[in-house]
Design brief:
Strand content: 15-25%
Distance between the termini: 33 Å
Number of domains: 1
Shape: globular
Oligomer: single chain
């Protein structure tokens, strides 16, 4: 189980622990597995086949190898989660499905899809341009860049 102090020590912990942000419930900490930078790089490389740890630096061959399914614009900070429900249905994602959420190739958490939906606007900020979500089991890759989720199927 992840502790609040462990979460605070990560490079993105402030998103979930700062009083100005949406402070994460203690109970939800049980659902977070913080990946160390080496493991994050390993998993990023496994999925992207690249040592470049930013979405915008991934080569065209990577993007061409994916099957783009949909693009969904979201209203960041809105209480309405309809867009996320669309993603859930489109990808057949269930609340208990495990995902890896990356902030670039060196920082990632393993969490449930439920936890992502609950705190999505703490995971994703409007100016973010380097978020990658992987659900290995469902063979899904989702990017989040500036208020837009793009869904791909891994081939």
């Amino acid at each position: 189980m992840t502790t609040l102090n462990e979460l605070k020590l990560t490079t993105v912990g402030w998103r979930f622990t700062d009083q100005k942000s949406n402070k994460i419930d203690e109970e939800d900490l049980k659902d977070i597995k913080i990946n160390d930078p080496e493991y994050s790089k390993l998993k990023w490389t496994e999925f992207t086949h690249s040592q470049e740890f930013h979405l915008f630096k991934l080569n065209n061959d990577f993007w061409r190898s994916l099957n783009k399914v949909n693009q969904i614009n979201v209203d960041w900070g809105s209480e309405n989660k309809e867009e996320l429900n669309i993603i859930s249905k489109e990808c057949n994602l269930e609340f208990d499905d495990r995902i890896i959420f990356f902030w670039g190739g060196q920082t990632s958490f393993e969490i449930s899809w439920y936890l992502f939906i609950k705190y999505w606007d703490d995971f994703c900020y409007p100016s973010d341009d380097n978020n990658l979500i992987i659900c290995e089991e469902k063979k899904i890759l989702i990017t989040y860049v500036e208020d837009c989720f793009t869904i791909y199927y891994l081939q």
